[in-house]
Amino acid sequence: MADRKPTLNRDFRSNDPYSYLAGVEGYQLPQEWVDNMQVPELHSTRILASYDEDGFARGGAYMSPIFLDPEYGLLSLAEREFIGVIVSSFNACPTCLIIHGHKLGEEIGDHGRARRIAINYRTVELSVEERAIADFCVKLTERPGRMEAADVQALRDAGMSDARIYYVIELASVFNLTNRMTSAYGMRPDDDFMAAIAPVA
Fold first, then answer.
1. What is the pLDDT of residues 87-96, one digit of tens each?
2. Dihedral, CA atoms, 92, 58, 196, 184, nearest 10 degrees?
3. What pTM was estimated for this model as a whole?
4. Does residue 198 contact residue 192 with C-beta atoms inside 8 Å?
5. Are the C-beta atoms of 81 and 112 separated by less than 8 Å?
């Protein structure tokens, strides 16, 4: 039964778990992982990696360049974060929205605009290409069984090469995967990350 005491006050301290799963008791992440962690989910990573460290490492090796390597593919980091925010918004994945919304704000130098994109990109001034990317990613996220050649053609008509379209599809698909995993596992950002991005009182 929920506590009857109010929680919406400055005195309340949350103790929300970092995952719906408990993890293997006593497991510690390899120190190399801790030293090189590039995502603000150290605690939930420890829990999930405890079940299959090798599998978790393989997934990270595949996804890390797609998300983090500036030299990867033909999309800028800002474009990648933009796609991540669009997909995460329509999947209602709060953890990914918080993290990638903040990263988008850093990449474009405007956290307010990044938040507005996360809430409703259709109300924000975007280039023809950016709006086409967003519309494509929304359809792929919400109605993947309705994708057709005309959807790709709309990206071409907005000025995109087939090579760049390839990376849009890859990234939107990977974000759909990670959104579902994050939501189902109940992953959330580390408290120190949340404190670091909070406005100064």
1. 999 999 999 9
2. 30
3. 0.95
4. no
5. no
